Amino acid sequence: MTTKMPVILDVDTGIDDALAILYALFSPRLQVLGITTCFGNGDVLNTTRNTLAMVEMAQVSVPVYQGAADPLVGKWAPQGEAFHGENGLGNAPIKKPVTSPKTLSAPDYLRAAILDRPGEVTVVTLARLTNLAIALNSAPNLAQKIRRVVVMGGAAFVGGNVTPVSEANIWGDPDAAWVVFHSGMPITMVGLDVTMQVNISDAQVQKLDPDRPYTKIMRQALDFYLSAYNPGVSSGTRQAPLHDPLAVAVAEDPTLCTTSDLSVDIEREGTITRGMTVVDQRGWLDLTPNVAVCRSVDAPRFLRNFCERLGFPMALD
Ligand code: BDR
Ligand code: CA
């Protein structure tokens, strides 16, 4: 029997986070040690509630730890509603979870779990990097104890999705992203360069296996998500990106993406570039590369795995 890879997911659930949670929990290769929550697609109470609801719908037992309510600097402001709805899951009627988050905070849990298994734990961040930055700031050498962080975030060679140059998870707390990107830990960046290449369609959503416990909620949530990404397009021909599931998939199987080792910094102050992942493409700064940047993805292979595991049909008819 092969041993499973221990991972912690950091989420702001979120429609694509919800799919990523299912993808990770049903993985034959990942052992999800815990899930930490952050503000982002909703306030942190909302994203925690959605996370608990998804874990319950997956019918597994994994501890959930509530984390940051605000970025390192400033206050959270509602922001993801256009894509994720007021309740973060496309306004689908989510049942009140029967489980609760653990009493330990997300950053405290991250620190404890990583120090407990030095060099073993992969952290997959699907949200702002606030929880991980707080954990890093609280423990010197924590960065050296993490096996790798796989970050869904950034836009290396493509445009942004909240500003012309910035992606939401970096833009939402650039100070936290700066801490992580300067920490020295191994980082894989699964940015918009690759996540915009993996899409789910109307036909697939409509034909989601009717017997899964999450089918009703995820069909409704995904209908909202498809509308948000395709304003004015009638249902039947829409598609939308699977950002967060792809990051989990890359943690599970790094061969899904080609990468380039590059020096990447985070713009924290620019008036029109705040939250930009600045790539030193031509080596001007003469720095040692700090990030494996995903450049291309085997989309058919990822989609085949994703559809099989979650009960979506692969045929795009
Ligand atoms: C990222 O931002 C969030 O809205 C999504 O859940 C994803 O993590 C995409 O930019
Ligand atoms: Ca997310």
Tell me the major beta sheet: 8 strands, mixed
The low-pLDDT segments are: none
Bound molecules: beta-D-ribofuranose, calcium ion
What is the CATH class designation?
Alpha Beta
Tell the overall outline. Answer: globular
Protein architecture, described:
- It is a single chain.
- Helix content is 35%, strand content 17%.
- The strands form three sheets. An eight-stranded mixed sheet has the order 3-2-1-4-5-6-12-9, sandwiched between helices.
- The protein has 317 residues and is of the alpha/beta class.
- The protein has helices at 15-25, 44-58, 81-84, 106-116, 130-138, 142-145, 168-171, 174-181, 192-195, 202-206, 215-229, 243-252, 299-310, and strands spanning 5-11, 30-37, 64-65, 122-125, 148-152, 187-190, 199-201, 239-241, 257-262, 264-266, 277-279, 291-297.
- It has a single domain (5-310), classed as Alpha-Beta Complex (Inosine-uridine Nucleoside N-ribohydrolase, Chain A).
- It binds beta-D-ribofuranose and calcium ion.
- Residues 14, 16-17, 41, 80, 83, 126, 152, 161, 167-169, 243-244 line the site of beta-D-ribofuranose.
